[in-house]
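Q: Start with the shorter request: fold the first protein.
A: Done. Sequence, then structure:
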Amino acid sequence: MPTRRRFLASATAAAALSALGVPPQALAAGRIRMGSSERFSFDALIARARDMAKTPYRPQNKVPREILDQIDYEAHGKIRFNTDFAPFADGPGQFPLTFFHLGKFFLVPVRMFVLDGAGSASPPTRAREILYDDRYFDMPADSPAHKLPPGSGFAGFRFQESRLADQDKKDWHKNDWVAFLGASYFRAIGDLYQYGLSARGIAIDVAEAGKKEEFPDFTQFFFEPAAPGSDTVVVYALLEGPSVTGAYKFTMRRAEGVTMEIDKSLFLRRDVARLGLAPATSMYWFSETVKGTGVDWRPEVHDSDGLAIWSGNGEHIWRPLNNPPHTMASAFADSKLRGFGLLQRDRDFDHYQDGVMYQRRPSLWVEPLEGWSDGEVQLIELRTDDEIHDNIVAMWVPKAKAVAGAAYRLRYRLYWQQDEPFPSPLARCVATRLGNGGQPGQPRPPNVRKFMVEFKGAPLEKLPFGAKPEAVLSASRGSFSYVFTEPVPNGVAGHWRAQFDLTVDGGDPVELRLFLRDKGEALSETWLFQYHPFKTSPVY
């Protein structure tokens, strides 16, 4: 319930914006310092990004580095935004907005602006900056953050989960549903109320040989007050980097999961060898597929376990993720891509046994809408020996070369939820297992690996009694033996597995392809796998 102190403070803040036309409920109860107003429109932001791309890159004005270095992981963890100052906290049906503080690992100051025109039929026309003040944050008296000069800026922001009307159910300041923090990274919770993998505004030269990856920054955000009771917020952003500039519009809806519609314009300052659009970044250490010996007590550790693709020809593809022996880049060309995503399919707690709840991590699906040219989904897999490192990137890379002066305008939709939004009607892959090849009780032959690939779904449930699906297999090299299919002996209808041995010499990767069919009709999605041969057990 609003207090008298909050009411009096709110009146002060509302008066400061009365000339802008910002409704009183748009601001927080706290006394926020505001800058002067300026005109704003998305078209003007796009034009600004276009003009910036014609000039050399100038890094953001840095706040004193010697102070930020003192705000290490421990010190940063003790700094919390005071929700008394949260914009949009007092309006009916609003999502309160809170901010992250700068620190050793978040060096680039980000400017935050509030737009007018809440509930108006016309777009916002004025913006006023929220000026940084350390009074907005609860922190120890000896925190090095107190040494930062006024107006230093913020590191990022998040929208809190619950609205004012929900405060009797939970403390809204403890729950957020979307967060933007660091470079162009952002993430959202799904319908299982967990953060996991991240998305990015852009990916520049990820794992490109001879080049250092570039991390452009969102340097300004503009927040459009939501209409009362709306489940949607709109945020605009300016992107800046040595190779690229951009303007973004995020229309974010909090429903059962989180859906974001992104409209962005990009302008290249210089050539880019690998331009990643709509990139997603995740972590995959190990799963049931390949098990190290004693590397960790848990059965599986990953935020995502596979890449799913819905191709332009209608094929649904499932590619289990790898923790490869060295950096690998895989490409899946398409001309009319329907969607792709990094998914967490395994939802069984017993498969993780971890209190961080990997089984509840959201999946992220990308749906192209407008402006997508021919290109390919690229999957980058990096070697990791711990769960603290993101080592997976999936993104769309246009076929045409990304050269200085090129411009891109595209729209797409992101779905943060527990499952893909457009699942195949066919049976889908639910597990990939590898082991030593050969037969039990017999000497195990060298250079032979056994694969067990499990599928489950309605088409397999409808098989006539006694019918057995055919495993359709192919490989870039090597030979198959002991190929057969059988029901998984767990009593679950429609749960089958294909088993085969692969014999292959040498250490080069092998590309495998498999699906199930009956009487010429596909029963399952297509399983793709990149196998890295080894002579001994893998070491993690």
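Q: Next, the second protein, separately.
A: Sequence, then structure:
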Amino acid sequence: MKMKLKFLLIVLFAGFSAWSQVEFDAVVSKEKLGVNERLRVDFEMNQDGDNFRPPSFQGFTVVGGPNQSISKQWINGKASFSKTFSYFLQPNATGTLKIGQAEIEIDGTVYKTIPIEITVTGAVEKPKDPNDPVAAAEDNVHLVAEVSKNDPYLNEAFTVVYKLYVSRETAVNGWNELDAPKFADFWSQSIDEKQFKVYDGSYDGKPYRYVILRRTLLYPQKTGELTIEPLALNINVEAPTNRRDIFGMRITRPAKITVTAPTRKVNVKALPEDGKPENFSGAVGNFDFDVVASKTKLDAQEALDLTLTAKGNGNLKLFTLPKPKLPSALEVYEPENEQDVRVSLNGMAGSNSARYTIVPQQKGSYPIPPIRFSYFDPATEQYKTLSSDEIVIDVENGPATLATSDKADKIPVEETKQFAYIKSDAKLKPMNQDRFFGSTAFWSLLVTPVVLIPLAILFGRKRRAYQNDVKGNRLRKADKLARKYLGDAKKSLGDQTAFYLALEKCLHNYLKARLNIQTSEMSKERISQLLQDRGVTVETTAAFLKLLESCEFARYTPSSSDAMQHDYEQASRVISEIDKQL
């Protein structure tokens, strides 16, 4: 009897030990798959738990799940339990992706799975079922990348156009990008399609319809063989099968497929070294070059602008303009660079300018030597150099130029009086002649802190009061904004939308600062009443309200440049008049 009891206890203890050992694992259907295949992931546990937390599945799209299944068995007196959470994943890109840790809480303890690495390759060929809509759709939908030039020069423009070809029996219900090309070795800009238009064409000798998804302008920044990364799409389609209805028409079924444009390579040629000018700075295209001075006759300390402009077609954003070599008597400031560039499938077109502000210091005549600009023309495969004309700056009034060489030695210093402020007699005294203790400097240094400390305390109180004056600070800020927006309106003359938006903000902030009201309280009657209560004349008030009406009408009706100029001058005048009358 005792032996039976011991045997039963041993069996129960062994069964309890087997039951108490927790197992929580992640199992995948495959560790290597194509970007057009799907992956199944099962999170399995041998004991029931709570608070299951799946990984983020970064790099994948969850196309199914979570599906939960539970299994309980009792075989030959041995109990087993299994619980599984299943997910179906679609990879978003090629490369090595990782499925992170999942978590489950069992009897108060948190268990985690081991991360799994998945290798995703390009699209693979899969066995096809003639009645499978996915297989039918993959045969009838194709993504193509067309490159306008396979052997461009460095910094020469070319385009890549992505077209989606669809057979006439297949309908596309929508798509989204999975893997977009990065164009790492190119300067790139996408040309947005305002609306998708369907064209008739052919693919592999068969009639197809196609739509242009994206056009991208590229300027290669490296030489040699460069790779244009593929574009991958997830597409929802209605694909035909081999089955037919009672009328003999093919039955279509919905399917979701992944298509990828083939990888394209271009061989980028280096610019030739033969004949390359010394001042060449990377300009590639076809350009004109101008150098213009805003004035050629002026007085000393007056400013003039010297503008260098390259305009035409080419890599306008990717090169620097030459620097002018000017006489030392002309003070030159750092240039202001301006680019007016339009980007289309033909490349960049427009202008690249550098404006130098120059201030002559002395009277005289100063020639600005010709400035040379060089560029490479890929059409002729030659370098071309353009040169400006010499510009002479005549400074009519101002201090004379310092004489040079021998003449300067012959002119007495007293006669020129240019260094009269320099004392030739220093009148030095011995350091031990006067005592510092008890001197004026001693008492000044002693008294100064006593005077400065009360002033610092007073200044600190004033500063804190200024910062704590919420209402005053708000009004000062509104006044500052009004001046700023008035300046923005002046800069936007000619652009109706930007001009009247800035002018309206200027008027509203001006009212906030002067009348202490908010935008929501700005009815015409209240504005008129408040201005007249403050002593503003009826005529000035009416002019201000008319400006507000002009800003409102400009939203719906076109306005000429003359009208905008008139409204700007009127706003400046009315604000000045209100300031005076207030």
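Q: Describe the second briefly.
A: Residues 288-395 form a domain with the Immunoglobulin-like fold (CATH 2.60.40.740). Residues 198 and 211 are 5 Å apart (CA to CA).
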